């Protein structure tokens, strides 16, 4: 004879089996810590080399650790007029070249992860592809970086070189064109994201 007790016991056993046999999804979201992160744009000019630092950036990474580490999402957003060189004239020329009144942000959006290679102790060599948008122009870019992923913090470190003209930017000039900026720039980043 089937009793309520037997039905309940069978049902609970099935629920337990379902929970145990379902793979656990461990997606963790980390948000960019603006105070701890650093992003510098470096270039050359006919007068001297130059650097511009970012004062305001935000972003996010989502890691999945179900079986092996996977990156599900990676975004970065830099406020264009937070790029500061310490020289007002240079900053004005930069904002003009980037058309900052119209294009308030420089963004990166992950589209594909090419490789995540463990180098031990939560360190990884990573190669991704994503859409980099500067001055309203979007280009697919390959970016390689080192990643340190712990329980509460992820750190990304790397460099990316490109030409301003690839994004339709005329390299800025100063002093009636007597000082010209080189076309090649390099972005160096040390990005800290916290849970």
Which series of helices and strands comes N to C? Answer: HEEEEEEHEEEEEE
CATH topology: the name is Lipocalin
What is the structural class? mainly beta
* Secondary structure: helix percent: 10-25%
Outline type: elongated
Strand content: over 45%
The CATH superfamily is identified as Lipid/polyisoprenoid-binding, YceI-like
Classified by CATH, the class is Mainly Beta
Number of strands: 12
Radius of gyration: 23 Å
Q: Give me the number of helical elements.
A: 2
Domain count, please report it.
1
Instruction: Report how far the terminal alpha carbons are from each other.
Output: 54 Å
Q: Strand sequence of the main sheet, in spatial order?
A: 1-4-5-7-8-9-10-12
What's the CATH architecture? Beta Barrel
Low-confidence stretches: none
Organism: Gelidibacter maritimus
InterPro entries: Lipid/polyisoprenoid-bd_YceI, TTHA0802/YceI-like_sf
Keywords: Signal
Pfam family, one: YceI
Question: How would you briefly describe this protein structure?
Answer:
With 195 residues, the chain is mostly beta strands.
